[in-house]
DNA sequence: GAGTGACCGAAAATGGTTTTTGGTCAATCA
DNA sequence: TGATTGACCAAAAACCATTTTCGGTCACTC
């Protein structure tokens, strides 16, 4: 059996997207990196977009794996939540491809990269939504709309982690957990 | 006493900024609209930016006036809060100049327009911060960092009002108030 | 028949030229 | 004589014709 050309292509493309971003990686470059003719790419993927989509799928799967690693059923919902969200933020910063996407969206607004980031966000929301459903069942949370609750928790976490520091002292992980607990678990009504 | 040229200029500039945005209004145009020579503008404002800044000051002052109008000391903190925030959102949509700024930032990212919107946001945060301080004093809220709390409340409100509808059914004003009450007043911990 | 790379049209980058624009200031009022 | 003006300037932006790049195809090769 000959070498797996498909894998060669996907690996080369992953590397190129991570290094140069979506817009700046060319199909010629991917072909050369993979050591295959350009035409060969098009026997596996009909367009550059489709190739990118597959790679984004893998990225999302990987993030899910990492999130699962962080989850500990022995801990409370909010503890797990803030650890998972913190880990996801970290992933976005440290993982080469994810980081490049963020940068490309910020600096050039490439539509396809934006779409990719949106898919990641939707996947994260879906993931948290499930965890919320479980927490509600286990009685760790009041009954609530899991979709809406996921949205609130994720948006708030990201706003605190990325926008708050723009005009204030950054919050460390523990403060974030405390804030989440006091504002969202207990509420800020007196008593 | 001759006509108030300064006012002529400010009015003309306000109209032009509202109609064409920051980038697309030229000092020549403002001069012509105001019916004065271009040089005259520079006897009152050293740069286009300074002229714009003064107009933004007026806008912010006006928003504050509108917010104050919405405030009713007889109502609860959360009721006032969500009515004020809803009114501010509405203002940004309906007020010609504010609306044009939002559009210009979205479509072209004009730095000076972005700065203007940031100033508005900071002013709003400051305004809410004061209201929170009062509410804490009156015992309507637990003691908390008013700056942080204002950030959380405003960010969450705007996310729910502008981002949530992108992939969900929009929330009407009453739902928003309910959400705020149940998530932030009472918290989502059981009991 | 799997694999390739020369080739194609469309889109984007390039760069040199023209136009616009924020800001100045000598001339001109009043 | 101090307020007002608009021709003027340099720098930035807009334009536009030309070239280059790039995603995708397909006749050819092995």
Summarize the structure.
The first copy, chain A, is an all-alpha fold and 191 residues long.
Task: Describe the protein.
- The structure is a homodimer of 191-residue chains.
- Chain A is mainly α.
- Chain A has two domains: 1-46, Arc Repressor Mutant, subunit A; 57-186, Tetracycline Repressor, domain 2 (Orthogonal Bundle).
- Chain A has nine helices and no strands.
- The first copy, chain A, has helices at 5-24, 27-34, 38-44, 48-70, 77-94, 96-108, 111-137, 146-167, 173-186.
- In chain A, helix 2 crosses helix 3 (38-44), helix 5 packs across helix 9 (173-186) and helix 6 packs across helix 7 (111-137).
- The first copy, chain A, is elongated, with a radius of gyration of 20 Å.
- The model of chain A has no long low-confidence stretch (mean pLDDT 95).
- Chain A binds chain B through residues 122, 139-142, 144, 147-149, 151-152, 155-156, 159-160, 163-164, 167-168, 179, 182-190, and chain B through 122, 139-142, 144, 147-149, 151-152, 155-156, 159-160, 163-164, 167-168, 179, 182-190.
**3D shape of chain A:** elongated
Helix fraction of chain A? over 70%
Oligomeric state of shown chains:
homodimer
The number of helices of chain A is 9
Cα-to-Cα separation, first versus last residue of chain A: 71 Å
Unreliable stretches of chain A, pLDDT < 50, 5 or more residues? none
Largest sheet of chain A: none
Based on the coordinates given, report the CATH architecture of the largest domain in chain A. Answer: Orthogonal Bundle
Indicate the CATH topology of the largest domain in chain A.
Tetracycline Repressor, domain 2
Write down how many β-strands of chain A occur, each being a DSSP E stretch of 2 or more residues.
0
Rounded to an integer in angstroms, the radius of gyration calculated over CA atoms of chain A is 20 Å
Q: Which class do the helix and strand fractions of chain A yield?
A: mainly alpha
At the first level of CATH, what is the class of the largest domain in chain A?
Mainly Alpha
Biggest interface found: A-B, 29 and 29 residues
Strand percent estimate of chain A? under 5%
Order of helices and strands of chain A: HHHHHHHHH
Number of domains of chain A: 2
Average pLDDT reading of chain A? 95
């Amino acid at each position: 059996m000959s070498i797996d050309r498909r894998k060669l292509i996907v690996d080369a493309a992953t590397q190129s997207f991570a290094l140069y971003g979506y817009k700046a990686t060319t199909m010629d470059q991917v072909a050369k990196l993979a050591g295959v003719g350009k035409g060969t790419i098009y026997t596996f993927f009909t367009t550059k977009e489709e190739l990118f989509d597959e790679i984004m799928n893998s990225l999302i799967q990987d993030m899910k794996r990492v999130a699962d690693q962080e989850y500990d059923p022995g801990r409370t919902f909010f503890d797990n939540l803030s650890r998972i969200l913190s880990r996801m933020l970290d992933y976005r910063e440290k993982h080469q491809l994810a980081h490049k996407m963020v940068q490309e969206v910020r600096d050039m607004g490439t539509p396809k990269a934006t779409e990719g980031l949106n898919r990641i966000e939707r996947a994260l929301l879906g993931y948290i939504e499930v965890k919320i459903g479980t927490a509600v069942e286990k009685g760790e949370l009041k009954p609530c709309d899991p979709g809406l609750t996921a949205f609130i928790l994720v948006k708030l976490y990201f706003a605190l982690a990325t926008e708050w520091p723009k005009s204030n002292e950054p919050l460390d992980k523990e403060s974030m957990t405390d804030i989440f607990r006091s504002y969202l678990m207990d509420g800020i009504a007196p008593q």
